[in-house]
Task: inverse folding
């Protein structure tokens, strides 16, 4: 031991060692948290920072910041799941109503087209008028036939009002809305019958689900 080291009080040496260990512990904890959060960070970084350009391979409109979804709004689980949600009145959604059927058809087909990743995507139809769903529509678009969960608006007036406000933000009330596993709305899509736009929607969803491994199989 040098004469210089002999002049340093033992309490200071111990304090320096403790501080060094504390710093190492904090760094290790931050690295662990970063590793756990990396899938979520990657997906949001890709879409919110390295934003898609040109509209050639992507269709969705990003929601920034993401809009939190209250699980109490609907009588079906959304936390831990990827969900495509659409709101339509059952009383107007008949087989001959092209606008409504086109939206249901698009959601069903994109889920099928995603193959294995489609198994992580649930389809929600919010029945906004509470009327019975047309039996012919049920045959093609119920949970057994197409994976749709048909749910009603909240009965509580405050919850209903809050849901409708959330639904219609940015004028997206008639769009197909994507809810992530947190749950929060992070993107919405137009209803379209264009093959090119269908491919863009599919690519958006595939990219997100590939980058973000959260969201259980249904």
Result:
């Amino acid at each position: 031991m040098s004469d210089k080291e002999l002049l340093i009080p033992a309490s200071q040496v111990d304090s320096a060692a403790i501080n060094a260990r504390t710093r190492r512990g904090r760094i290790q904890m931050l690295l662990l948290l970063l590793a756990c959060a990396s899938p979520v960070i990657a997906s949001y970084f890709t879409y919110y920072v390295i934003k898609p350009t040109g509209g050639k391979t992507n269709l969705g409109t990003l929601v920034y910041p993401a809009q939190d979804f209250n699980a109490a709004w609907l009588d079906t689980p959304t936390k831990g799941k990827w969900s495509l949600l659409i709101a339509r009145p059952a009383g107007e959604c008949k087989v001959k109503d092209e606008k409504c059927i086109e939206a249901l058809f698009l959601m069903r087909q994109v889920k099928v087209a995603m193959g294995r990743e489609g198994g992580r995507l649930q389809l929600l139809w919010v029945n906004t008028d509470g009327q019975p769903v047309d039996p012919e529509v049920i045959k093609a678009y119920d949970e057994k036939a197409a994976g749709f969960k048909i749910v009603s608006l909240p009965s509580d007036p405050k919850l209903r009002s809050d849901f409708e406000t959330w639904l219609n933000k940015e004028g997206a009330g008639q769009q197909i809305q994507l809810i992530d596993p947190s749950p929060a709305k992070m993107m919405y899509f137009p209803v379209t019958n264009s093959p090119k736009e269908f491919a863009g929607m599919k690519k958006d969803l595939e990219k997100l689900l590939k980058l973000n491994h959260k969201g259980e199989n249904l």
Observations:
- Confidence is low (pLDDT under 50) at residues 52-57.
- The first helix runs from residue 3 to 6.
